[in-house]
Queue: 2 jobs
Job 1
Amino acid sequence: MIRPDEIKTQVREHYARRAAGGGCCADPAIAEACCGDAPTAEPLEGVFGPSLGCGTPLEYAQVRPGETVVDLGSGAGRETILAAKQAGTSGRAIGVDMTREMIQKARENAARNGAGNVEFLLGDIERMPLPDGTADVVISNCVINLLPDKAIAFREAYRVLKPGGRLVVADMVSNGPLPQVIREMAGAWAGCVAGAEDISTYLQFIRDAGFVEVETLASTSVPRGVVFSATISARRPAA
Ligand SMILES: C[S@@+](CC[C@H](N)C(=O)[O-])C[C@H]1O[C@@H](n2cnc3c(N)ncnc32)[C@H](O)[C@@H]1O
């Protein structure tokens, strides 16, 4: 049985390599489901590393000027920086990522794009270095599937949201549980395949964390046992 710490090590090493560049499916040795699908409406300049998302959560998040956005697993920082632009000078965006190389790349990208209202924190989204009630909006793109314990990440997202705050997550999920043989493949966890949770279980984790108005905004219809991308929104109750 693969241990949670082995999965984390594999994931961190994989994304440290990815930070150097090499698009989404650059490593043919690994089944990679997280493929660049980042919002393209607003071009960004400069260094940029890979876009490794599987949806466009920011498009659905409707960030308003003055809001604070937290991006879980921010990678090279593209969506965090776009969120900061939408939040304007009276708002801000914070990216959290556990891979030092990704944080460094994201900080370079922020500097290159003149984004002064954005910061990138090195940390695990299971224990975020942020106080309770920090954010109006939490977004995440193709990250929570990489966590052995997804329920913890949703409880953390709930904690850092203000009452009434919203969550928009794009992620790889599956139609029904995946075979155990796939779940045991560490490389397939890093490639956003093995950790894909059954969609019903995934939605229940979000509800169990305390969220309401849990809605699937975008997804595809696939046969049982197949992995797909879904975009889900939810809200922390106002009080
Ligand atoms: C598939 S990439 C997606 C990056 C970015 N959201 C995007 O769309 O390009 C996954 C990212 O999540 C980060 N990550 C994985 N597990 C994490 C954890 N437990 N805490 C913080 N970051 C994590 C990885 O380091 C990597 O940068």
Job 2
Amino acid sequence: MDHSQEIKAFATSLGFDLVKITRADTLSDAGLYYEEWLKKGLAADMEYLKKDSSKRYTPEKILPGSKSIIVLGLNYYKKEHEFREPFRIAKYAQGRDYHKVISAKLKKIGKYVEEISDTNPLSKSYVDFGPVMERAYAQKASLGFIGKNACIITREYGSYIFLAEILTTLELTPDKSTKWKGACGTCTRCIDICPTRAIKPDKTIDSNLCISYLTIENRGDIPLALRPKIGNWLFGCDLCQDICPHNVRAQPTKVQDFQSIPIGAQNISLSQILSIETDDEFTQIFAGTPIMRAKRRGLIRNACVVAGNLGLKELVPQLQKLTQSDDPMIAEHAAWAIQQMT
Ligand code: SF4
Ligand code: SF4
């Protein structure tokens, strides 16, 4: 008996905006592309992307006997910027941590899948950091197409969606593959707007240059030549999505958790960020938000770069104090920021 429609209906009832199914095939072409991308060093120092890389495109290695992948999309778009300061934070981070929100829903769907059939199917679910090439499987499932900016772009919501996937040993009916008319075509808007030239013409992103990587995953210095190009991005960057013509279809998220940032981080100023002295203080402010990922020293490093780029002279006394920090990374970025203003 095919349970595809019941599973889709259940996932939709939990708030997922898009639910598609594809077969749990090995993606050889996407795998080759991914291995090449790693070999060229374009994953920067994100070691988790390199570990067991073949798992990402070989579902059998993640869940032996897997037959189907349920690919889920959750729209997170919000128009309003929550922060009163002149810095910017990527839209996906302007709400509660999506891992927490989505994991809770995935658990319920996983349980539903395992109990729906008397064949005792197994399931494994992932959101974002899991070992699955989620955009490639989302494209295979016809949830959207991968744009030149490397985002999955959906017909219904554009690219501001979180992806999640459930691998299962249950045989389900895959969605028919879609021909994406008018996908990227000759458009190069995202390539042209990227301040650091991180998007290559072959849809490859060089993470070493991408502001999202530099301000979130990067644990070290931001290269000097790239600092001015970061402008006022404090955490992440949305430029290549905001410019995409497919995002005219973006519509406000229905998920309350994504509509506003948790209370502690609301209305925080750059000055307050520069004053955070301990990891505990950082956690008190940002707990439950994706901003935790940058950690205290990463966020202060970013705040120094933004202050330097915006020439915020009123922050010089705080920056001067930070030049005495025990952390050489913070001290150096603070000194750089002051230099930009003199
Ligand atoms: S996120 Fe920003 S820096 Fe990264 S590729 Fe897109 S426009 Fe470029
Ligand atoms: S901006 Fe243009 S090239 Fe870039 S992803 Fe969107 S449609 Fe494709």
